[in-house]
Amino acid sequence: MAEGYCAGVDLGGTNIKAGLLDAEAHVLASLSVPTEVDRGRDTVVSNIITAAERVIADAGVDRSQVIGIGIGSPGPMSHRRGLIINPGNLPCMKDTPLREIMTERTGIKTTLDNDANAAAWGEFWAGAGKGVSDFLMFTLGTGVGGGVIVDGKLLRGYFENGSELGHIIVQPGGRRCSCGQLGCMEAYSSAYNLARRAEELIADGKSSQLKARIDAGEMLMAEHIVEAARRGDSVAEQVWDEACYYLGAAIVTMQHVSNPERVVLAGGMIAAGDFLLERVRKHAKALTWTLLDDLADIRFATLGNDAGFIGAAGCAWEAHRTGEW
Amino acid sequence: MAEGYCAGVDLGGTNIKAGLLDAEAHVLASLSVPTEVDRGRDTVVSNIITAAERVIADAGVDRSQVIGIGIGSPGPMSHRRGLIINPGNLPCMKDTPLREIMTERTGIKTTLDNDANAAAWGEFWAGAGKGVSDFLMFTLGTGVGGGVIVDGKLLRGYFENGSELGHIIVQPGGRRCSCGQLGCMEAYSSAYNLARRAEELIADGKSSQLKARIDAGEMLMAEHIVEAARRGDSVAEQVWDEACYYLGAAIVTMQHVSNPERVVLAGGMIAAGDFLLERVRKHAKALTWTLLDDLADIRFATLGNDAGFIGAAGCAWEAHRTGEW
Q: Which helix (H) or strand (E) element contains residue A215?
């Protein structure tokens, strides 16, 4: 077993989560602090450093035993260059060479990865993907994030925008996605789009229990759709079924591309429980080929919101192990 | 530079192609002999061995300098187990542990790979993918074969059925593919399906110059569609445009999954030249996101029918280099 510790930092638009982990993915200390985006880049960078320093101190570990820091950042970013490029929810961090800044200011080697990739690495290393070599994860939140592990390695791609599974085209000419494409899986299966899709159908005149919320000036949320679908509301049921169907189609496409042993679903939408999981499994099974029995086992993530910092620490361990540093 | 030579064998339903290559992908000798499927497994195995022995002899190379043999075989097969499982066009080779048989009978280490993967490796190593680390290839023939290289390694997947790019779902609920799925890219973009799709439209009553061929009892071929589309026949144009459109959609999906630097098109259909390439590029560009400029460079393969045995020899070199043997 490797000795020492790595810190993991999950840089989000609202909070920074951090933890100190050993090589076996045990969390010795963890915390969450506000990102304070509004106060600008210097504050955000200081908050990241403070969070990392604090988990080291909280764990009572000697600083010399800290091998590295891993940071999961919203994209677009570059792992190779250690650079945050232009994250939508962290505008002040545009073009920040965070890896260099961290290394300089802490004296500890740092590695930077896409937050969705880091979270997938977390589940792969310490959660629902443990013990599996070919794995992928969909994070079903406002958008749909993805992370793909091929033969034990993160799939980053030449332009470092690989594993963007939410942008698999599942319905050519379909709904417009925020990325500019038509018919992305995210345009049907993310929490945000699920709600917008219901609003569209209701605006088109379809009858739904959800109309009362819209009339009351409420913004529809994914939870409302799930709740109404469970009660048998036909608009909610249609939209929910579509979301699960297109996710199933993306899983089948990935079955033929990276051919994973296991597919893990994470993010806020997994609160729907079996109502989601059973439906996605049913659609994937109906959509897949009859030639061979190689559909991945589909299950839920187990690390919750900790996957990000755990995976970021795991990426640091991986940078150490593979000699990236 | 590594010394020695590897033999590559491309095992097809009609012919066995073989060559002897050095570590720099120079072909010292090559040949093609009939597979003789009808004569059964022992004959086919003997023909494979004879082909490999002959290219070694033809090259005038000392047998002791031959490091290994690579074989590209139709799937389903297992690289890990060195086993041909159940290839549609080589029924006599069902459940043949070809790797062991070859090693025993020739005394030379052997590695077995899927033929589409071997061909992709050939273009990656010595053809249109040379110098690129993240690459993928579509082989547009009767079906659509695929091969994906991620960071210099073949993507095989946990069940060893990865890189089956023809079975990306591009139109949920669409045309039935021979694999059992609905709406596979292959169901629109392969030579076989292109012709069937035209027949369907004509049977539905659409007017086309191609009807004369059908009435004369001819079976439509992809070449006929291309020819008629060039002349402006509306059915042929529709079917051809669909084929290019869905190939473009699959390329965009792969842009977001493996994020390659280059995409190569191979197989019989590339005889259509710019009529194919420009159309696919146009559709991919129209389908991709506006967020970032990371669409792969799309171009034609350069090794033609030799890609299979060249890639098979390359897989043998790779088995040697990575210590697989």
A: helix A211-215
